[in-house]
Amino acid sequence: MLRLAAIATALMLSVPAWAQELRGVALVIGESKYETLSELINPNQDARDIDDLLNDLGFEVERVLDADAEELREAIEEFIEDAEDADVALVYYSGHGIEVAGENYLVPVDATFDTPEAAGNALVPVAPMLEALAKVVPVTIALLDACRSDPFPVGTVIKLPDSDAPITITAIEPGLAPLRGPTPAARPDLPPESLGTVIGFAAEPGQPALDGPAGENSPYAAALLKHLSAGGFSFGDVMTMVTEEVYLKTRAQQLPWTNSSLRRVLTFAAPEQQDADTTAIEGERRKLLLTIAGTPDETRKYVEALAGQEDVPLDALYGMLNVLGVKPDTAGGDLEQQLKAGAERLKELIADKDDSVKADPELERLSKLAEQAESEGAIALALQYRDQASAHADDLLNEKLDEADKLRQDMIDIAQTYADNAATAVLNYDHIHAADLYGKAALAVMDWDKAKALDYTIKQGDALTDHGTLQIDNDALNQALAIYAKALEMAPRETAPRDWAKLQGRIGQTKQGLGARLGDVAIMQASIEAFDQALSVQTRETTPRDWAAGQNNLGNVLYSLGYRTGDQATLQRSIDAFDQALLVYTPEAEPIRWATVLSNRGAAKMALADAVYAATDMIQVEALKRGDPNAENLPEVIAARDQAVVILSEVVTSMDAALLVRSKADNPLDWSMMQHTRASVLADRGKLTNSPDDFALAIAAYRDVLSVYDKERTPVQWTTGATNLAGTLRQYAVLTKDLASLDEAADLLEQSIALTPRDLSPLDWALMYTKLGSVLSDRLAIDGSAATADASLAAYTTAEEVTTPEAEPADWERLQLYKVQVLFAIGVPSMDRARLQQAYDLATASKAKLEELNAPAAGFFDQMIPTLEEILAVLPE
Length: 877
Hints:
Elements: E1 2-5, E2 19-22, E3 24-30, H1 43-56, E4 60-65, H2 69-82, E5 88-94, E6 97-100, E7 103-106, H3 116-122, E8 124-125, H4 127-136, E9 139-145, E10 157-158, E11 167-168, E12 196-201, H5 219-227, H6 235-249, E13 257-260, E14 265-268, H7 276-293, H8 297-310, H9 314-323, H10 335-351, H11 361-375, H12 379-427, H13 431-445, H14 450-470, H15 474-490, H16 497-518, H17 521-535, H18 544-565, H19 568-582, H20 591-614, H21 617-625, H22 635-661, H23 668-689, H24 692-706, H25 715-736, H26 739-754, H27 762-783, H28 786-799, H29 809-827, H30 833-853, H31 861-874
Parallel strand pairs: 3-4, 3-5, 5-9, 9-12
Antiparallel strand pairs: 1-2, 1-14, 6-7, 7-8, 10-11, 12-13
Helix pairs in contact: 1-5, 2-4, 5-6, 6-7, 8-10, 9-10, 11-12, 12-13, 13-14, 14-15, 14-16, 15-16, 16-17, 16-18, 17-18, 18-19, 18-20, 19-20, 20-22, 20-23, 22-23, 23-24, 23-25, 24-25, 25-26, 25-27, 26-27, 27-28, 27-29, 28-29, 29-30, 30-31
């Protein structure tokens, strides 16, 4: 609805008290599809959109699209007639326009310049239309969105109607010429009701106007559509907004021009807005536009240059400058510096813009409103929206923190449920299931409780280590090492030294077991390095109990390495480490740990005793080579044996003391470990002293050990106890000639072989076959059975699948000797030439193989071969 308001001026006419509803008529013209001139893309769309807007504002609209000259003139004439009883007449034209001889003309779609007369007759002059409207309607508004390009080329000759001389178009300045409407006070021929004319051009006189991208409105039409309905503003302010809107959106390439002779304030009542936020943003935009209108040219030049330099939008820059305290009407001083700072800040804001959609609808709504306000240069309003968004974010944060607290507790409870299940699985020896559950527990709390996540991860590795140790599963041990490595990333030495050291200890333990099983000295050395790393943090002064545990772990791996290599220095280092641990683990303060370390120390001392006596092996071999039948009683051999017996006796005493502290009822697994050590020491002492009593005590102790272990749940421990019991039964049978003991030993070894996968523990598997062959060899000495001999030979031959001359020349040499001895033992009593020839061939081939490999030989065959040659020489072929 139109509303015309009176203002207090000297020229004020008599009108109703304040305001009245008025009738407005409009003629909307869009010329796009030119027949001979360049076609324009957007005028028709512009005309349709302006038509819709004017209808919404209460105008009675006549729309004309792609009119030829006759249709255009006719539409104008009819419009002038219709405007006679109107209060406001508005003409909007979008299409080609031209200035000829200082006059402006509209160009219909059939305009042609084939002849000067045709060109002149096609043009529709603007001034007569405005003159006619001024005589019949109080207010005339003409909005000319023309001059997008000059339709006629230079040199075109135009002969206007009622003109004697044709006009040649020379170097044309683009755009229309300035045009002023009739001024009522200076025109007595105009009716007294005439209040003036407003003429709006899309561009300044002599400057081109832009058509805009295809499918969009021209910049001028877009600005009209945006601001023509602004309520509460005079029409002059509205046209100022339109001017500055075009200026901003074209980045100062186009500046509309308006001429007004109105003697009253004309306002358009705004249609209802969609919502308060849209109204607020539009209002702030319009205030900014009116402020920019007062900007001096010098300031505009600064802003325009800086916008181009920093590639930021003009409108946002003007708004940003206001927030930064730079007034657009300020010139000189430090303006340039302030402008640059503002532009740089604005550029950063644009670069940092995040286009992602926020999950919360209210945050998304407020963020979009803030972005819209920023794009309109309403920076202060944008800040209000941002503040509202932050206030809502505060509420959300509190809500989410409450939810997070609950979620955190839920995740901790879930993890604890998994962990409790895992602990029960461990009690059932289901370590793989336990490892899976601990892994789930760690994952559940990874983002909520780092300490618990680390604890569960370590326990996951522990479960895999236990499974790998108990079930002879090397893959599980390697998986455990990978889990420990993951845990190390969660507990770096710099920030969590104690946890880091604890993990190094576990890595050392796992590598110790893997290295011992594979006979891999390099892995065992890596285990020692891991324990040394742990002890670099776990000192006796700072963490005595952790330090003692680390010393115990180090002692264990040194024992494993020394046991395999027979190196006395390594074994002594192992004993020293256990002694260090016992400085903290006393029977009074830590009776259980004291007993465990004492047991470990006993095993190391036993290995040292074996190494001490084994050091005389070559002395005895050399004596035998010399034909000395008393090699076992040489002084140095007796001294070594006595030293070993003293060591072993000290260990028996310490183990008896340990077993008094730790009973079977307290912890059967730990008790069985100590009992196993005691049994091994007794068997070792019995071997050195040929004592049936020591062997009997050892056998009883081993039987107690096997009463604790189970072949299915603890196969490794059961196998270790069974093979040691078998060896002790064999030694006992040698002294007592007890076939039942040998048969039991053979059965135990066969069961152990069945539980020992060759691919996972090849050395242990081969050693068990070697021991089985020796048990059967001892039985052969008693029963003289060919079947027993063949079974013994078969066991030794199977062991050769792993114990090859290239890999283990010394052990392979012993195997060949054992086989030769079996063939000799079965062949001599019956003078079986075939068996003895087989023994001779095997002995000579074995010696030749060792010489071929240049391997050190113990000389087992040097006496055996001549003896066999003598026997074969007297036997018939």
